[in-house]
Amino acid sequence: MTKAVIAATGLFTPEQSISNEELVAAYNAFAERFNEQHAAGIAAGDLEALTPSSVEFIEKASGIRSRFVIDKAGVLDPTRMVPNIPERANDELSVMAEMAVKAAQQAIAAWGKPVSEIGAVLCAASNMPRPYPALSIEVQQALGIEGFAFDMNVACSSATFGIKTAADFIASGSVKAVLMVNPEICSAHLNFKDRDSHFIFGDVATAVIIEAEDQAKDGWEILGTRLKTVMSNNIRNNFGFLNKAALPTGEAEPVAASGLTDKMFVQQGRKVFKDVVPMVSDMIVDHAAELSVDPTGLKRLWLHQANINMNQFIGRKVLGREPTPEENVIILDDYANTSSAGSIIAFHLHHDGFHPGDTGLICSFGAGYSAGTVFVRKRA
Q1: What residues does 370 pair with on adjacent strands?
Q2: pLDDT, tens digit, for every residue of 51-81?
Q3: pLDDT above 90 coverage of the chain, percent
Q4: For residue 332, what are the CA distances in angstroms to 223, 321, 325, 368?
Q5: Which of 114, 230, 278, 365 lies 20 to 30 Å from 84, alpha-carbon distance?
Q6: Environment class of 327 (CB within 10 Å of its CB; exposed 0-12, middle 13-18, buried 19+)
Q7: Is the pTM of this model over 0.90?
Q8: Catalytic residue set
Q9: Where are the beta strands (DSSP E) in the chain?
């Protein structure tokens, strides 16, 4: 059985970003406008007045200070609160494919080999722009890659599930190298009119090249991968192709503006924290034991970037002590939650200082519930 290696990574970051101060100003302007327009209903007790947001609230709840987005103006318009991303013609490269291609090109350049050696392309992300043709096939064509491609969606855990899938293809001998991309336009499925979650997500794209060990020059040996899913409605997005049939007769406005907020990201944060943190912590420790890896000796954790409190709790549980910032990487402050891409951003930006034999962990967790662990060791 051929072992797999993470050979290279890439990152595309949008040019536009939104600070907490800017986001709070936009939300509060919307909330004030809403309260004024519905003053009578609020006074009668039929509606609840919207509570203002604040920078302090956001940072305490999440650790997030800013986020990158594809469209800043639409999000910050109090009369809109939705990114404005014009639809492209079918013969144009789609927005998400363009993001994925840019991240992939960076990974391919770092890899230093021709794309002819890549046998498969996986697009693993929490949201796809359409059911078909697969976004991965569009990326495959844009990069001139032969072989096959397909999409997969495991919400925030999509990247680790993608790495596992790629490693299995390599172990079976199906291909010698796989390109996995994680384009995420999370701002398009976020309800910016909801105080409890309007700050959570950002947009980004990452790419990972997974290669057969006997062909890799250096990189990171994948010691083992493990996946887990448990059904839960505590994080949910009901958007899908059947939504049009469910809209009231004659309603033509986009779902994002229709008031059908369950068609966007919704969560019960406290329940998620209570359920997911122990599940993931135990999963990491159990998987480490199976691989004969001492979890307290891990040099670095590249966890899913969902919430700083979750990451700190998991870090303490796994390492058995308070982790240093170098051990438990946090990129939430700049990028916010970028769904499947978060742990890969952390790995891409902060894998320095490793010596041959040093071990680390790439880990994701999110809706489903879903979780994935990828233990890696630096190669000589």
Answers
A1: 229, 366
A2: 999 999 999 999 999 999 999 999 999 999 9
A3: 92
A4: 27, 21, 12, 22
A5: 365
A6: middle
A7: yes
A8: 156
A9: 4-12, 16-19, 66-69, 120-124, 148-152, 177-185, 203-212, 220-229, 235-236, 266-267, 300-303, 359-366, 370-378
